[in-house]
Amino acid sequence: MKTRDLLLVIAGIALVAFLWAAPEETTPHLPRDTTHAPYLTLFQQEGKKAAEAFCKDCHGQPGMEFPPEHPDPNRCLFCHKATP
Ligand code: HEC
Ligand code: HEC
Questions:
Q1: Which of 3, 31, 40, 83 is the most buried (most CB within 10 A)?
Q2: pLDDT tens string for the chain (84 positions)?
Q3: Structure pTM?
Q4: 3-state SS track over 18-44
Q5: Do residues 79 and 30 lie in contact, with contact meaning Cβ atoms separated by under 8 Å?
């Protein structure tokens, strides 16, 4: 195998590893605490949309604003996984 081919393979593996790891590393999951327990149950029984209806009761309210760099805050559970 040529050195160039080998480098391409290494670059490919590095890219896959990066894409694989990146979302899990940076996006916090739905917390496993008493505050969020009812929404975990709701998610498990009725799905993402049912649970997401309540997130903005707290998040995004005065005193709990989203960070300025936060993506468009809809469909919370697509990014903030409810499962570990
Ligand atoms: C009753 C108010 C309330 C509701 C409703 C609520 N949260 Fe939270 N959330 C909090 C509070 C308080 C914190 C910060 C302390 C903590 O981690 O529990 C928090 C923290 C978080 C964090 C940050 C965790 C971290 O590691 O930084 C995420 C993500 C989150 N909530 C997602 C959600 C999602 C998704 C929903 C809707 C399914 C939701 N929350 C509904 C009060 C709420
Ligand atoms: C497109 C993906 C995406 C969606 C949709 C989304 N978030 Fe986030 N959220 C993120 C990422 C990425 C971060 C980490 C940002 C950072 O640490 O700078 C984050 C961070 C947070 C935090 C922690 C903020 C802090 O101060 O550390 C909370 C709480 C949160 N999101 C709640 C929510 C809620 C509630 C919703 C739905 C109303 C929501 N998010 C929708 C991607 C998303």
A1: 40
A2: 788 888 898 888 888 777 666 555 678 999 999 999 999 999 999 999 999 999 999 999 999 999 999 998 889 999 999 986
A3: 0.84
A4: HHHHHHHHHCCCCCCCCCCHHHHHHHH
A5: no
Question: In 3D, which of 58, 40, 49 has the Cα closest to residue 76?
Answer: 49
Ligand nearest to the CA of 46: 1
Instruction: Write the residue with the smallest CA distance to atom 28 of ligand 1.
Output: 30
Distance CA 59, CA 64 (A): 5
**In the structure encoding, which two tokens stand for residue 77, read together?**
């559970």
